[in-house]
Amino acid sequence: MSHSVDAVVLDIEGTTSATGFVVDVLYPYARERFRALVAERSAEPEVAGALARIRAELGEPDAGPARIEQALNDWLDEDRKVTPLKTLQGVLWAEGFARGELVSHFYGDVVPALRRWHAAGVRLYVYSSGSVAAQRAWFGHSPEGDLRDLVTGWYDTANAGPKQAAGSFRAIAADTGIPPARLLFLSDRPGELDAARAADWRTVAVRRPGEPYYEKGPGGHAQAGTFADIDVVGSGT
Predict the structure, then answer these.
(1) For residue 234, what pLDDT is reported?
(2) Average pLDDT, whole number, for the chain?
(3) Separation between Cα atoms, residue 154 and residue 82, nearest integer Å
(4) How far apart are CA 167 and CA 172, in angstroms?
(5) Domain-by-domain residue ranges, the chain?
(6) Residue 112 pLDDT greater than 50, yes or no
(7) What pLDDT is recorded for position 237?
(8) d(CA 61, CA 155)
């Protein structure tokens, strides 16, 4: 099926990139560094804001470093999409990428498709539960180099809202200025795709064997096994 759209909005984990890499490499990297981040860098504005949100989430305004570290690790174990957790992960991952300690993962079919769509005049956006800082670091330190120039804009749960809420997709459409029917969302999670469809977006379920949501099926959405199977046509082509 061909999709004539003005923009493609990309999920990362399970869609452009392997969930296993995030779980097996990035999560442990952050977990090992939470204690020092919370204890030694609480005066930094981004860290301080995240710590305040963690205390609010816990309902414990006086929570100290040990309690906050415990909460972060508990949320990580539960794979909770909690915004301050994602913020602190993003801080640590961005630094790890900048130091060359981390290199991101992309499925082999993804980058050629992104370059092809971009060359055809299709705008590319990212919408991930990971923070914008983490997204930019991810695309900036790929095995194929810096891919950030391919991306027009970045959205996360802080600046757009929860990924399974139709209102978040309406907010993104309004921010981009693109009519919902001209936006295509690619994700592996049926709940996210349902939310996008409820906001009148086009959707494709990316279904890769071995990814956590593969067995759930496409949930009534168009589906593709790889990005090579997705025919995107820009409005000017």
Answers:
(1) 81
(2) 95
(3) 18
(4) 9
(5) 2-17+106-234, 23-98
(6) yes
(7) 46
(8) 28
Calpha distance 214→209 (Å, rounded): 6
Give the CATH number of domain 23-98; options: 3.60.21, 3.40.1350, 1.10.720, 3.30.950. 1.10.720
Residue found by looking up tokens 């936006």 in the block: 183
Query: Is pLDDT of 235 > 80?
Result: no
How far apart are alpha carbons 230 and 206 in whole angstroms?
Answer: 9
Q: Report the amino acid identity of residue 81.
A: K
Task: Provide the 3-class DSSP secondary structure of residue 7.
Answer: strand
What is the percentage of the chain residues whose pLDDT exceeds 70? 98
Mapped to the 3 state alphabet, what secondary structure does 76-130 carry? HHCCCCCHHHHHHHHHHHHHHHHCCCCCCCCCCCHHHHHHHHHHCCCEEEEECCC
User: Three-class SS of residue 234?
Assistant: strand
- Residue 125 contacts residue 172 (beta carbons within 8 Å): yes
How many residues does this entry show for the chain? Answer: 237
The pTM of the full predicted model, rounded to 2 decimals, is: 0.88
The C-alpha atoms of residue 10 and residue 224 are separated, in whole angstroms, by 14
* Burial (Cβ within 10 Å: 0-12, 13-18, ≥19) of residue 37: buried
156/90 Cα distance (integer angstroms) = 11
- Is 143 within 8 Å of 106 (Cβ atoms)? yes
Query: What's at 68, amino acid-wise?
Result: I
Instruction: Report residue 185: phi and psi, to 5°.
Output: -105, 130
β-bridge partners, 123? 7
Contact 7, 125 (CB under 8 A): yes
**Is CATH 1.20.1070.10 the classification given to domain 2-17+106-234?**
no
- Start-to-end C-alpha separation, the chain: 16
Q: What is the mean pLDDT of residues 208-227?
A: 94
* Residue 101 in tokens: 């300690």
